[in-house]
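Support request from a user on the community tier.

User writes: "When I paste my structure tokens into the form, the page sometimes reloads and wipes my input. The last time it worked, I copied everything first. Here is what I submitted, just in case something in the input itself triggers the reload:"
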């Protein structure tokens, strides 16, 4: 975990602190983050809730979009998000890798893959961020 990046994200996005989201690395071409399994983030059977996984992907993807904002823009906001889930996460960490697919003047599209500790794909999220 990169403590300075994590604190910067948590200050800008308080939900990231609530979830315990940690930034591992961040550059315009790729953002890596992770989230530890916690009982208060689960659903039936003790697996991470789908909304928790989506929040991780949205937070990491938004940070990736932020790093790709055109000069003079005021920020970014998610306007569309699509998630495919592939497997449950009963413990450990979820690791995310976010990469821009399209960087334009008015929108940025980011794809985020989520993996478990064994590097098995948990979900894939594609989101569109509005450039504000």
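"...and here is what came back when it finally went through:"
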């Amino acid at each position: 975990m990169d403590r300075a990046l994590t604190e910067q994200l948590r200050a800008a996005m308080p939900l990231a602190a609530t979830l315990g989201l940690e930034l591992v690395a961040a550059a315009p071409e790729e953002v890596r983050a992770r989230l530890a399994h916690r009982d208060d983030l689960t659903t039936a059977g003790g697996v991470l809730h789908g909304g928790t996984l989506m929040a991780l992907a949205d937070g990491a993807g938004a940070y990736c979009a932020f790093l790709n904002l055109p000069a003079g823009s005021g920020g970014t906001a998610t306007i569309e998000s699509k998630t495919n889930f592939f497997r449950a996460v009963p413990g450990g960490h979820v690791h995310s890798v976010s990469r821009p697919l399209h960087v334009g003047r008015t929108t940025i599209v980011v794809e985020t893959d989520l993996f478990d500790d064994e590097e098995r794909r948990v979900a894939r999220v594609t989101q569109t961020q509005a450039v504000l």
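Agent notes: The reload is a front-end session timeout and is unrelated to the input. The CA atoms of residues 74 and 132 lie 5 Å apart. The mean pLDDT is 96. Escalated to web team.
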